[in-house]
Design goal:
globular, 5 strands, Rossmann fold, five-stranded parallel β-sheet
Amino acid sequence: MFDKILLVLDGGRGWPDAAEFAIEMARGGKSQLIGAAVVDTDTLSRLLAQGIFVEEERASYEKQLEADAGRYLNHAQKLADKAGVALEKTVLKGLIHKVVLQEARVRKVDALVMASWRRSMLKRDLVPHERQFILDEAECTVIVVKSMAET
């Protein structure tokens, strides 16, 4: 059904459930699976420009976010290996929805898989807000996976 699936690993709540779903979907459909961990450097740059961060803090947070991205990809890789699914890994940097949508276009994916969010989180948390932009602007199918913790 889907030849190429992009799994969005943004670090927000529910991403492990989305990873498991995408891996099972890829296994069942014999699809190519790409795991994309996102480092939100755009927000870091805005905080620096507003004087909330100094450059050293920005660099420190970026390194921490890069390490987190590596952990998300490693976790997804373990799940994929266990399921016998090949996982291509990539790290995207920039404004979450923009880099995810650009990656989807460049790679010509058929589907994006990402974790769900609660409407109440849209005003106070950046990741659900960015997920909503992805859902609104994507040019392909978007599959939103409800976290098992939310059921």
